[in-house]
């Protein structure tokens, strides 16, 4: 099913809540703005965030002869999305599954979705280095995968988990495209003083230590969190975040 | 004649029941720690459950710290609660068990990152942060911070069983168990093994924005499905107080009313909110004791209220 996909990019992080899903959606939207056909696959089974972030909650996945038809964000069908969120009846329902069941679901997501022709497929993952990740790696082994973008926040506690994720990539032989530092500073709306809530420079130090490229540092900007399905680069093109997303998109499209 | 399927309590979804022909063979059984016992018979519960019960008999309150979402501050809140509980009364013994296998944070947050665990005749000795505060985490068993635990579910389950049944805690007043995000192996295993051990309940941590609440609602659903008593919800990172102009602002806007409204909707107790204080986050990052370092932080004040509320809830259990 993935033969018609030109590039596959994984978004990983050992730590939860660092902004993997936000980075994945905005990156997908940035690529769409640049004129590419993009797919976004959410393999976070216990906490799917993509349907909410793209305001697609309540959509259904349909079955066709060739497999599951993903959900499209608009009629032009430039952005195709697949998530377990579309398969749940109620948004409050929990998916209480052990590993093997999650594994078979992820496998289905990778093999049974008919994406059609895509320039880029972005895969958003849950935190950790366990069942979902191992399955994705194993299934992508025979397919050309461009590599992984690793997301972190600047504080030590997060860096520590992300170092484990880097080891995971090295052990499983996935190339690392680069590191994105998220939530690197917060500009107070009343006095415009920039505070580093979660300390500063951790991403840069980690990139140096592990010898990987730092793709960019995203500040905390509540406007980005409130975009809900709209592209940051289009809606607030002058924001520092938009600049960084453009740089990241440029960096990966060159590869 | 209709046959009644007997299902043990706290089983995974779609459990065929221990007596059924499908026991241990259905798709829902793969990965369940009871699978082998179920499929090979004689049928009966996991022997680990009894071991855990015996080991945790000397622990008064056993509290799980949960959240569907990652990075909302489960580990920070666990550390805050444990430090505050320990500081309240020197005669009470507090312990923290980190069951986040793939991303253990407790060693760093509690400032004992370079310690090691020792084995004695009566089990693993936890690492002591203070005279009355001990901690156990897989982080102590790794040789380098770069080491990754790349394990599938069943292996993680075995580790959690060991943590619950083989750590020599001594007499404890509170055992706080920090969990990874999600509703999967680690959570199911902890709940299964604690099923006979009289679990006090769960504290759920969230941040104010909808994307976090979305996952937290799932966690509440999980607690209900596995009949865990919810002690309450703590909202973390609720407001940011600018160290320069002292004005409050929202870093993660509560566009759907935040945790308090969710609690009202789902009818679960709300314990309180903790503001974002860069001084406290820095202390946690460096593993220092924030109670000594920043005693005047608004976080401490909010924390006191939450602790008082939590203690009341725990006492009501007896």
Automatic annotation (TrEMBL), chain A:
InterPro entries: Mrp-like_CS (IPR000808), Mrp/NBP35_ATP-bd (IPR019591), NUBP2/Cfd1_eukaryotes (IPR028600), P-loop_NTPase (IPR027417), YlxH/NBP35 (IPR033756). [4Fe-4S] cluster binds at residues 188, 191. GO terms for biological process: iron-sulfur cluster assembly. Keywords: 4Fe-4S, ATP-binding, Cytoplasm, Iron, Iron-sulfur, Metal-binding, Nucleotide-binding. SUPFAM superfamilies: P-loop containing nucleoside triphosphate hydrolases. ATP binds at residues 14-21. Heterotetramer of 2 NUBP1 and 2 NUBP2 chains. Interacts with KIFC1. Interacts with NUBP1. Its main location: cytoplasm. One of its GO terms (cellular component) is centriole. Its cofactor is [4Fe-4S] cluster. It comes from Sitophilus oryzae. The keyword Lipoprotein does not apply. Belongs to the Mrp/NBP35 ATP-binding proteins family. NUBP2/CFD1 subfamily. Component of the cytosolic iron-sulfur (Fe/S) protein assembly (CIA) machinery. Required for maturation of extramitochondrial Fe-S proteins. The NUBP1-NUBP2 heterotetramer forms a Fe-S scaffold complex, mediating the de novo assembly of an Fe-S cluster and its transfer to target apoproteins. Negatively regulates cilium formation and structure. GO terms for molecular function: 4 iron, 4 sulfur cluster binding; ATP binding; ATP-dependent FeS chaperone activity; metal ion binding. PANTHER family: CYTOSOLIC FE-S CLUSTER ASSEMBLY FACTOR NUBP2 (PTHR23264:SF19), NUCLEOTIDE-BINDING PROTEIN NBP35 YEAST -RELATED (PTHR23264). Pfam families: ParA. It is found in: Cytoplasm, Cytoskeleton, Cilium axoneme; Cytoplasm, Cytoskeleton, Microtubule organizing center, Centrosome, Centriole. Binds 4 [4Fe-4S] clusters per heterotetramer. Contains two stable clusters in the N-termini of NUBP1 and two labile, bridging clusters between subunits of the NUBP1-NUBP2 heterotetramer. It comes from the Eukaryota. This is Cytosolic Fe-S cluster assembly factor NUBP2 homolog.
From TrEMBL, chain B:
Pfam families: ParA. Binds 4 [4Fe-4S] clusters per heterotetramer. Contains two stable clusters in the N-termini of NUBP1 and two labile, bridging clusters between subunits of the NUBP1-NUBP2 heterotetramer. [4Fe-4S] cluster 2 binds at residues 242, 245. Heterotetramer of 2 NUBP1 and 2 NUBP2 chains. Component of the cytosolic iron-sulfur (Fe/S) protein assembly (CIA) machinery. Required for maturation of extramitochondrial Fe-S proteins. The NUBP1-NUBP2 heterotetramer forms a Fe-S scaffold complex, mediating the de novo assembly of an Fe-S cluster and its transfer to target apoproteins. Implicated in the regulation of centrosome duplication. Negatively regulates cilium formation and structure. This is Cytosolic Fe-S cluster assembly factor NUBP1 homolog. Residues 1-26 are annotated as: Disordered. The gene is LOC115889900. One of its GO terms (cellular component) is nucleus. GO terms for molecular function: 4 iron, 4 sulfur cluster binding; ATP binding; ATP-dependent FeS chaperone activity; metal ion binding. PANTHER family: CYTOSOLIC FE-S CLUSTER ASSEMBLY FACTOR NUBP1, NUCLEOTIDE-BINDING PROTEIN NBP35 YEAST -RELATED. Its cofactor is [4Fe-4S] cluster. It is found in: Cytoplasm; Nucleus. Belongs to the Mrp/NBP35 ATP-binding proteins family. NUBP1/NBP35 subfamily. GO terms for biological process: iron-sulfur cluster assembly. ATP binds at residues 68-75. Keywords: 4Fe-4S, ATP-binding, Cytoplasm, Iron, Iron-sulfur, Metal-binding, Nucleotide-binding. Gene3D superfamilies: P-loop containing nucleotide triphosphate hydrolases. InterPro entries: Mrp-like_CS, Mrp/NBP35_ATP-bd, NUBP1/Nbp35, P-loop_NTPase, YlxH/NBP35. [4Fe-4S] cluster 1 binds at residues 15, 29, 32, 38.
